[in-house]
Each structure stands twice: as structure tokens, then as C-alpha cells.
Amino acid sequence: MNPSKNGLPVTLLSGFLGSGKTTLLNYVLKQNHGKKIAVIENEFGEIGIDSEFVIGADQDIFEMSNGCICCSIRGDLIETLNRLLEQHKKFDHILIESTGLASSGPIAQAFLIEDEISKSLYLDGIITMVDAKHIKNTLNEQEVAWEQIAFSNVIVLNKADLVTEPEMEALKKQMRQINPTATICKTTHAVIGLNQVLNIGGFDLKNALELNILNNETGKNISSVSLSFPGYIDPDRFKIWLQMLLLNEGMDVCRAKGVLNIKGSKERYLFQSVYMMFEGRFDKPWGLDSPLNKMVFIGQNLNSQRLEESLKNYATF
Question: Which of these, 202, 182, 194, lies nearest to 125 by C-alpha position?
Fold first, then answer.
């Protein structure tokens, strides 16, 4: 999961139908931001590109007047990425819109395990657009909407002008219950600073541990479980325990991340996982901070007591 400094950052734009993904893409394509951004869309018919902004077209690849490149996914995503890189070498960023009916997990995994793209590209972050007005009904009816939120690095609560302030606060609380580690922004008409969605280092371990340990949240569909306790953890046994957890729980564990206190080391040990993909390494010394194990698990049917007891019985001193 470590991004290459020489690689090209990729942002995945997720969100259920009607959340405002296309509005955000149009906003990016029409701004004078001075960046060379490649925008990969599912179908050009959805984005509604105005002809006045198009300089030229070549096999479904459009150059925009502000330097952006727009490309449609006509088949496999990896094939589209390779075709784009072959024809246009110099980019600052790639922004991909996923279909509104898909989970972000499989696409995130592709960037971690596919040799074809992992050498030249790295996943910078997953941005999920949320329709603030209708998300409550969507969550009641569509399980994939929970997964989209669970995988997010940034949750954009769009159409903020259509809800009251108390409704917005309640929505923020619900988002934090599903995903306590994501940054939450609110927008109207998807107007947002590019620095809030691009180059955020969402899968860089240095930024993975900005954890706000909340009270454990459980409930229907996807929720989060946060653990915090003192003592030492054996990193090798912890990896085995996590692998066993992922094997036993399967796809129910969407994401996990945390900071561990390793016996014999004065440095923090950072880890994160996306489904079955695991990464861990030592970071910086604890310094003035008291060593403390802190972990967040996001998934379905998670039980905080069972997780903590299992972990302590297997991997702690």
C-alpha cells in the first residue's frame, strides 16, 4: 500500500446515484486550477461536457481548455488507465468516477495488487459523495451505500442547502458511526477546494492513524468498532490474528487501521488493511505520548467485546 513518490496519484470518486459525482466532475473540468488532471468517467453521456470546453478528441479521450483530459471507461478500468497513460504522459493527477451502484473495495484492491498499474500509479484517496437530503432513505434500501461510506477517506455531504443544521449534525454523527476515520466536508452543488479531495495521502500510513477513538458503535449494516488498551502486542502474532480474522469474517471486515505498542521497540507500529490486503511498519518514537494500542475496524456484524477478547488472548503480553 505504500505509494511510490515517483508514481501518479489516483483519486477514486464514489457515491450512490444522485449524490453529485457528475456535478463535482463538471466543476473540476471547468475550473482554472492549472493542474493536468485526467478524469475517467463511466459514460460521457452522464457528464454532459459542453463542446465549448473541448479542444480535441481522440478515441474517446477529450482534452479540455483548462488542461484536463476526460476519458470514458468503455471496458476494463485497467485497460482504460493503460490506454490513457500511453497517449498522454504528463499528468498531475487521475480522478476516477466509479459507478453509483458499486462498492469501492474491489477497485481499491486492484490498485494494491495489480502489477500493471501499481508500478506507475498509487491510490491517493477515496472520496464519497453523499446526498445529504436523501441519504437516510438510501441507507435503508441500499447496502452498497454503507460500503461506499465505509471505504472513504473523505465523505462529502453534498446538497447541504437542502437540510437544516440539526439534520446536518445528526448526519455527521451517523457518518462517524459508520466511518470514524474519514474527513467530513459539506458542500452545495459539489463546490469544494481541490486540496480537500486531491493529494490527501489517504492510503499513506503516516496519515492513516489520525484516529479519533470513539465509543464502540454497533448496529445494522456496516458500523465501526474502536479498541484502545495498554500493554504490548507481538507484531507477528498480531498479523496472524488479523489474517485469521479476515479469513473467518471474510468480506465483513472492510477496513482496519491502528497504532500498536510493540515490546522491545520505542517506536509506534502502524498498520492498515483493505479486505485481505495488509500493510504494517514502524513509524516514529512514542515521545511524550504514553504507549497505547489503538485500532479501528470497519465492517459488518462486528462485535467489540469479541474482537478485543480474541486479540488479547492471542497477540498481547
Answer: 202
Tens of pLDDT along the chain (317 residues) come to 444 445 889 999 999 988 998 888 888 877 888 888 888 876 544 445 444 444 344 556 666 666 676 777 666 777 778 777 776 567 889 888 887 878 888 878 777 666 656 667 888 999 999 999 999 999 988 888 998 999 899 999 999 999 999 999 999 999 998 898 899 999 999 999 999 999 998 887 766 555 554 444 444 567 788 888 899 998 888 888 887 887 776 667 888 888 999 988 999 999 888 877 778 889 889 988 789 999 888 888 788 888 889 888 888 87
Tell me the whole-structure pTM to 2 decimals: 0.79
Judge if 196 and 219 occupy the same domain.
no
In a domain, 1, yes or no: no
Domain hosting residue 173, numbered range: 8-203
Match 455531504 to its residue by C-alpha cell. Answer: 157
Do 21 and 125 reside in the same domain of the chain? yes
- By CB atoms closer than 10 A (0-12, 13-18, 19+), residue 220 is exposed
